[in-house]
Amino acid sequence: MSNRRRSRRPPRPGAAPADRGAPGGRVGGAAGLGRDFRRFWGGALSSNLADGTMLTALPMAAATLTDDPLQVSGLAIARFLPWLLFGLLAGVVVDRADRVRLMAAANTVRCCALALLAVLVATGQATVWGLYAVMFAAMLCEVFYDLSGRAALPDVVPAGTLDRANGRLEGGKLVAEQFAGASVAGLLFAVAAALPLALNAGAYLVGALVLLGLPAAVRRPAGPGRAARAGAGGGLRSVAADLGVGLGAVFGRRGLRTVALLLALVNAAMMAQSAVLVLLVQDHFGVPEALYGLFLSSAAAGGVLGAASADGLVRRLGRFATCALAFAALGALSASFALSPGAVTGGLAWCALAFAAAVVNVVTAGIWQLVVPGALLGRALSCIRTAGASAAPLGAALGGLLGRVDLRLPSLAAGSAIVLGTALAAPALRLLSRSADAAEREATAALDGLPPGG
Fold first, then answer.
1. Cβ–Cβ contacts within 10 Å for residue 148, how many?
2. Closest to 358 (Cα-Cα) out of 270, 436, 265
3. Largest CA distance in the chain
4. Does the domain at residues 238-454 carry the CATH identifier 1.20.1250.20?
5. 32-220 maps to which CATH number?
6. What are the TM regions of this chain, as residue ranges (predicted)?
7. Cβ-Cβ contacts under 8 Å for 104 (sequence gap 6 or more)
8. What is the Cα gyration radius of the chain?
């Protein structure tokens, strides 16, 4: 059996060998994701565990320093601000740099920041502003880490397995971040406030070390744009010019622009629901405060199931049908959640909603990775993510305003907006799905030595 790498593009010169996958060139098939992906996923799981611990431990630490709700809520601002300020610039850096080293460097910086905070907490020197600084620094590193990882993934896994790989990443993130990380943080914090922060630092460091073992073939973006710049004496274009190319790649192409805007709408709609979720669950559904966390865990369970099921759904229904149905279900389930008569039905609706959201995340991630050239992928993803991050505060504010009228209104409005947006974006979604399918077939055919579509 040949050992050429089955990536979404033909292997570049010097590419590391990998298993070809299923016999007969069947896309996806029973092919394994390979040793490189296992290493990549291991680094991601370690980082996800650290993220979950940090996102639980920092608010708990803030509560020990102040009882002012506004000061505690400042952590949420520090968490999302890096995407708004540096998301687009990060995409340019990701498309220029060694993506694996960038991920390792981001984790190393996060390790140092959390280790320093652990020392400050242990010695009683921590302040709320110090927590803000650490949250901001850690999430700024997350911007670079996440974009680099998503952009590098197509070169890590065999052709035809992107949906499965994205599902593994999404499911692993939910388990490590929302189940393991949050639980461990609470237990360790009860022993000593500095312990979960020390665990943060160690987990980020492990994630960095694991990633450094990936081969050179998956590290840098490939494509004619990079080769042309290198051949011109090594001078890179200005950041503004590179950023303009990335913006044009997303918003200058009708299909990509429409679906990117749909995702921004969905993000705003989901934030509108989340803004008043605790009040709706406790006041409308009657869930006691002690069981609120258990209610939320239904979303994590649904998300894990959705991430695990996405690849199988794509293979049975097709990429377009799976994505369109998941978007539509997301809208319908948002309305169903608001209209649920009690905590049990509400929890089931919230679980199903998370299932649909995970499927959307997995399938759309695969579409971007297939239709956007590798040398532009970092910038394209940064544009999409930044648009979503910009829409989130607007959605949260609208959710709060609607919640003043009726706590069910944010979910009803969100569901209606998602269903309408999906209907309007369906032609563009179909076009992109077909392009992704064609790119996947072409990559597989090229590696099998067949003509495209053969």
1. 29
2. 270
3. 67
4. yes
5. 1.20.1250.20
6. 40-62, 74-95, 201-218, 259-278, 290-308, 320-341, 347-371, 383-403, 409-432
7. 208, 209, 211, 212
8. 22
54 CB contacts (<8 Å, ≥6 apart)? 114, 135, 138, 181, 185, 196, 197, 200
If one counts every other C-beta atom within 10 angstroms of the C-beta of residue 313, the result is 21
Please give the single-letter amino acid code of residue 337.
F
Question: Which residues make Cβ contacts (< 8 Å) with residue 425, sequence separation at least 6?
Answer: 258, 259, 261, 262, 327
For the record, the structure tokens of 435 come out as 């392009």
Amino acid, single-letter form, for residue 436:
A
The pLDDT tens digits of the residues spanning 403-429 come to 888 888 989 999 999 999 999 999 999
Asked if 32-220 and 238-454 have one fold, the answer is yes
User: Is residue 225 within 8 Å of residue 53, measured between CB atoms?
Assistant: no
Tokens for 433?
Answer: 């799905």
Nearest one of 227, 262, 248, 259 to 88, comparing CA atoms: 248
- 396 phi, psi to nearest 5 deg: -65, -40
Name the one residue in this structure whose structure tokens are 């896994």.
157
DSSP state of 178: I
Nearest to 160 by CA among 451, 434, 438, 450: 438
Q: Name the residue ranges covered by the structural domains of the chain.
A: 32-220, 238-454
Q: Residue 279 is encoded by which pair of tokens?
A: 């009040």
Instruction: Tell me the three state secondary structure of residue 98.
Output: coil
* Tens of pLDDT, residues 276-319: 777 888 788 887 766 776 777 788 889 899 999 999 999 999 99
